[in-house]
Design goal:
Elements (H helix, E strand, L loop, with lengths): L27 H24 L4 H30 L8 H25 L7 H28 L4 H26 L4 H12 L4 H16 L5 H26 L4
Helix pairs in contact: 1-2, 2-3, 2-8, 3-4, 3-8, 4-5, 5-6, 5-7
Length: 254
């Protein structure tokens, strides 16, 4: 029976009668699913562009790369859900937790942001601003809850636990930052939280992840392909956010 509590490396001793119930290897159908999910995201973005045309400076980051990464996250969520539904014998590994969390986050983001496209014709209107405010708080609460799960559940090693706790703390501090900005924009606490949230915590998980991967390499741990897909998508998404933020800070669109 599959479980989500622990996430040990794959173990498939010869002669195990449950070998046929192990998750399948990476195949063309998985890549086709990724392509299909990318097409769905691109389609939704195309509809949104009719309401709010995207400036040329944003096309590369948010019109091409972001849909590809989001499509991979959605495909990973579908694959893990299908494995669970088929009662395959597997436990979520750390990279799969990343795939699950990012896939759920992308799904909720698309669902909650879609009303901005459907119901509000004018960007910046009173209704648009009010919904965007509610959307921000709903996403903050959801991310706090979903990022707590792997921090609590993963028990593979201390580096992996530290990694997931850092991610959770970053989300919590971001939520506190929204709260302190709401109470008083000039509070010292806001300045402190903003410095940590924008200049330290975005890079801390990547540094710790490098240490974790080196530790796993030394221990010769045998992970499934979905574990590596989850890590790759997380690193690519984080790198895209960092590069796009720096690019638009130094080369703002006109």
């Amino acid at each position: 029976m599959s479980t989500l509590n622990d996430s040990p490396p794959d173990e498939n001793p010869q002669g195990d009668s449950s070998a046929a119930r192990q998750p399948p290897r990476l195949g063309i159908r998985h890549l086709m699913l990724w392509t299909a999910m990318t097409a769905v995201v691109l389609g939704m973005q195309r509809v949104a562009s009719y309401r709010s045309p995207m400036q040329n400076e944003y096309v590369l980051f948010y019109g091409i790369l972001w849909p590809m990464l989001t499509g991979g996250q959605l495909a990973g969520l579908i694959i893990l859900t299908a494995w669970r539904y088929r009662r395959l014998s597997f436990s979520l590994q750390p990279g799969e937790w990343l795939l699950l969390v990012t896939g759920l986050s992308s799904t909720v983001t698309l669902l909650l942001s879609w009303p901005l496209v459907i119901f509000f014709d004018t960007v910046g209107s009173e209704g648009w601003t009010a919904y965007l405010y509610v959307y921000g708080w709903l996403m903050a609460v959801f991310l706090c809850g979903i990022d707590f799960l792997p921090a609590w559940k993963v028990r593979d090693s201390r580096p992996w636990r530290v990694f997931f706790w850092i991610i959770f703390i970053r989300i919590v501090l971001g939520t506190l930052l929204r709260l302190t900005a709401l109470l008083s924009p000039m509070m010292l606490a806001e300045t402190f939280l903003r410095a940590i949230s924008f200049y330290i915590l975005p890079y801390a998980p990547v540094v710790i992840l490098g240490v974790v991967l080196w530790t796993d390499h030394r221990a010769r741990r045998n992970w499934r392909w979905t574990h590596w897909v989850g890590i790759g998508l997380y690193l690519a998404t984080t790198l895209l956010k960092v590069i796009s933020t720096m690019w638009f800070r130094f080369f703002p669109p006109f």
